[in-house]
Amino acid sequence: MTMALAMFLFFVGITLLITYWAARRTSGASAFFAANRQIKGWQNGFAVAGDYMSAASFLGIAGIIAFQGYDGFMYSVGWLVAYLTVLLIVAEPLRNAGKYTMADVLAYRLNARPVRAMASLSTITVSIFYMIAQMVGAGALVALLLKNSGISYRTAVIGVGVLMIVYVVFGGMLATTWVQIIKAMLLMGGTILLSILVLAHFGFSFTNFFNAIGHVVYHDKGVEVVKDFLQPGLRFKPPYGALDLISLGMALIFGTAGLPHILVRFYTVPDAKTARISVVWAMGLIGTFYILTTFLGFGAATIVGRDKIATSGGTNMSAPLLAQSLGGDFFFAFIAAIAFATILAVVAGLTISASTSFAHDFYTNVIHRGTERKPGEEVRVARVTAFVVGAVAMAIAILLGPNANVAFLVALAFAVAASANLPVIVLSLFWKRFTTRGAVCGLGTGLVASILLIIIGPSIMGIDAPGATAAAHLIQSRPIFPLENPGILSIPLGFVGAILGTLLAREPAAAAKYDELLVRASTGIGAEKANGL
Amino acid sequence: MTRDDKPETPIEDLTPEVGAATDVAPLGRAEPKPAHELTAAEDSQPVDWSRVTQMPEFRAMVRAKLRFIIPAVIVFVVYYFALPVLVGYAPGLMSKRVIGAVNIAYLFALSQFFMAWIIAALYLRAAAKFDKMEHAVIEKAESELGSQRGNKK
């Protein structure tokens, strides 16, 4: 167990060296917020993949497949397909017309202050929810993986929080990017190695492997069950299973292109063409990773078995336990260290996107109407925000405790991104008539609808079985909205809000500036250039 | 800041013939100001965005992009949502085994990854063409700007 800690500390050591190196190169706003726009295409591809593949993907999806078979695998498909929206619709126009944040594109031809205020609110909401989910996960993971090392949940949460603040405050976007790149490489390396070991276990025979998946044996309440794990229906059950999955799919497909910590990545590259190449790199990595979850998840189901996973830590331990049974304690430690590194890198990415949005959108552009009172003020405010955001996330994570059910926070982050952010990004880029009121209405409706539907849905409302301790429902009553994922309703509501808001009143100034936005977004004339170092 | 607020036709040049090119106080001249005499506001040369959108090259580029992007988005959205819809509402069909234990449901899910990669690859190829069209637009816009500098529109 201490081996995992040693490996993790080694990773922390390397990332701190990177932060030191990055801090010496980071001066000025463009360096702090966008790594001087000098990140190469493949590097940004790794960083996007790193930002995206959180511990929820690595541990969570392996666990869902290990327990619920095919449905877990189907669940992972949407994560890759979502990048087509990023590639085809969002990445290039965003890079061409923006500076540091998503709101830059929205504020381009609309009345900047209300739009930026709402966009900033939505960005910070998404980031903090997502971050709390990651932090609670990190703490719980430490409690599981380092049971005997004397590190408590609280220490783990504080450790992760302090490190992410250090990366962001001192190293800015450059350090955050490289932490992501290294983490993505480790994650891919670990996953590929684990997959090869699984195949080796079956004598490199796909036939043997899939036959084993066809007959998975486990015990359910003392009764032996033999299941074909390639059959659908273990997770998504009628009457609402399919609908919930479609709803989740919508949140992924439309939400990924609205996730602020993914969008800021496209400002770190020199131009739109590089942004495009980096999405394709990310798609290669993310797709490979999710295809390999076949081996991780089904491998854990067949080699380790549901019974053993259930008694030694639960679903999230599937991948580490698989590593242990195939590669011994050393490999277990390696996979556990990768899981920590994953969480650390993702929270750092979320912190910088939240602080960039607060400093650039809210502080400079809303409060001070677009001018810095002193040079370097924007960066200073971002650094302070990183402290505040980190402290808030740490406090909430400690308050919630390791047993909190936080999976819905990730669903919420995607739902808000899909229902609030994406409709206004798309309408702002493609609809000449779009107005400030439309943007504010769209952002507001999407944000409120997502949060409300989650609150009245089965994640928060529900009746606990007697004696259940973990994953207790906050409101003890039958859920009003039957789906865990609100996307199917909240995304259309976001669009309707934006369109109705627009139709209420004309805004000739916004329409007049549409030509300018269209030319800039589609040709890159006047786009932010990379800085020489 | 546009240059429209200047008189359409400059009044006759009142500067004495001896005035050098560096003359900073033009009382009016037939020739436009040399570049080094322009004030910052005059020199900012804002692109005439509407004129760029009217350019046939620009319109062709936007049309070409949309001609790729719209069908691509429809294809991937339909293909992707077919998976949960079929699994949810036609589980019998999806559970049919094809090779050994491998069933249609698994193959269909796996095919999604390749669908995404193929569309991405096709887009990369198409985007190389868009880049060329984009360069043509930028070049033309800049050359028109250059001539704008000489004779006001």
Distance between the termini of chain A: 43 Å
* Form type of chain A: globular
Q: Largest chain interface and its two residue counts?
A: A-B, 50 and 49 residues
* Fraction in beta strands of chain A: under 5%
How do the SSEs of chain A run, as a string of H and E? HHHHHHHHHEEHHHHHHHHHHH
Question: Into how many domains do the coordinates of chain A divide?
Answer: 1
Could you tell me the strand content of chain B as a percent range? under 5%
CATH fold node name of chain A:
Sodium/glucose cotransporter
Number of helices, counting only DSSP H or I runs of 4 residues or more of chain A: 20
How far is the first residue's CA from the last residue's CA of chain B?
15 Å
Spatial arrangement of strands, main beta sheet of chain A: 1-2
Q: Structurally, how many domains make up the residues of chain B?
A: 2
Q: Quick summary of this structure?
A:
The complex is a heterodimer of chains A (533) and B (153). Chain A is mainly alpha-helical.
List keywords for this structure.
heterodimer; A: 533 residues; mainly alpha; Sodium/glucose cotransporter; two-stranded antiparallel sheet; 20 helices; 2 strands; globular; B: 153 residues; 2 domains; rod-shaped; disordered C terminus
